[in-house]
């Protein structure tokens, strides 16, 4: 069995910049193309480029639009720059508008992501390790219940959770957003599969024979081996909490506790309310600022999360 | 906040004899315990509470009374609920196959090794997944605008008048486009990851037998990733039935087209938070949850049985 760490990403071919370079493989003039090294196809590349364009054009639109003033947005063509380059003004205004409420939303989001995604990953790692490496009474049924729960619409849970939390006095506090974020059934599943593959049982036995307790075995032996899986789960729980909209929408009344998603939507709707000021340039710039951290995280950590995911699919 | 109480129970075990994995003990609970405790609080308790709520009705006069299954009877006769369910079913029937089809084609193209710049394609097509639904919807909402969006640009540049994507006739397709944009890359990655672990010796064997690309795809690759296909389908079905963010954020732009009972989830939300009908809202949510589970389970059974 190959180590899950060394699957998909290790075969990784050229870095992104490679697309512009024509036919990089010159040393195979008349070589028979094997299953491992088929001939590159221009047609296939062009066809796939259509999907690429579809994926990237809206992001280009967003980046270009963030450089425009409110008037520029309606005056100029969507995918090209307006005469006024207002990116820096927009960024400054985004952070200072309405007493810097955007900064507050950003900090709230960081808080929810830190505690919510961090906690969810921690619980998923512990639980996945248990499911993978221990046999205990009720193990099978726990998993069935958790997987069954995935089918329950999260949005359907939000209303009863709201009513429950409201009785407990937790609504309109950060806890109402953080506590439900702590559970990631997908994270548990991924960690379970990953731990099964990544931790040799013999290694655990060896640690135990050397007299290590269960906690010590977990932290010293298992945890380092689980690192790529942990990064993967952390990234996906981060996306889930960073992008969360419905839960905070239900739980929070006070704009001071809003995460970025709710805040941006409230700015957008401001134009539609009577007497509200239209701030579309800020909605656009704020949106760009909101997506940059996650995109950066995915790009920087791709080696890790892709190997984590590849391990997850072994079981399929 | 995170109380890590568990392994106390496990510690006092005497120096363990050489054990095998299948030895049963309660140690595993120590590690799984925290997850299960929070899970019970945020999943099981709300479900139970929801069932409890669905059996009562709040009246202006007389307060809250036990009504048994009356709320369920009402839900089954509720035209607004069925209309919203019909809408998401139509959405599901059209959007999910398109999205998964594109994702599968891209995954196969990446896996074929015949693309120039494979890694650039893979990461770029995946990126929209990192964009919050709110931002994606706001962005597409602007671009859909016939006045200062891309649609307006195309109309102006080509002298045509494309139909308004936010008109009642087209808004469902426009939402479908947003959801497709958000999740094509994610599903592509699931399929691609599954394809990467297919043993390459199978392809070599097929090549020696003279199998072409198409044959390799249908005879080896697709069966090998059946599990991933089924899981992606189930998650997409659940996602479609839960549709809320995109329509609710587009709603101010398309007031005539999107009503507060546009999807089942939007309907339960509106019932609870605009109408204060918590009990009936809980009932509709449960009915919807049951329908989702039945459909997801049916797909799973069917997907797993075929060809096994």
Question: What would your notes on this structure say?
Answer:
The complex is a heterodimer of chains A (316) and B (308). Helices cover 67% and strands 0% of the residues of chain A. Chain A has 316 residues and is mainly alpha-helical. Chain A has a domain of 221 residues: MetI-like (MetI-like fold). Chain A is globular and about 70 Å long. The N terminus of chain A is likely disordered. Chain B has a single domain, classed as MetI-like (MetI-like fold, Orthogonal Bundle), CATH 1.10.3720. Chain B contains 13 helices and two strands. Chain B is globular, with a radius of gyration of 25 Å. With 308 residues, chain B is an all-alpha fold. In chain B, strands 1-2 form a two-stranded antiparallel sheet. In chain B, a hairpin with a 3-residue loop joins strand 1 and strand 2. Classes of the chains: A mainly alpha (316), B mainly alpha (308).
Keywords for this entry:
heterodimer; A: mainly alpha; MetI-like fold; globular; disordered N terminus; B: 308 residues; mainly alpha; two-stranded antiparallel ribbon
Which CATH top level class of chain B fits? Mainly Alpha
What would the CATH topology of the domain at 84-304 in chain A be? MetI-like fold
By DSSP, the count of extended strands of chain B is 2
- What order do the strands of the largest sheet of chain B run in, or round the barrel if closed? 1-2
* Proportion of residues in extended strands of chain B: under 5%
In round numbers, the mean pLDDT of chain A is: 81
Q: Spans of chain B with pLDDT under 50 lasting ≥5 residues?
A: 1-22
Domain ABC transmembrane type-1 (chain A): 106-301
Region (Disordered) (chain A): 1-36
Membrane topology (chain A): Multi-pass membrane protein
Keywords (chain A): Cell membrane, Membrane, Transmembrane, Transmembrane helix, Transport
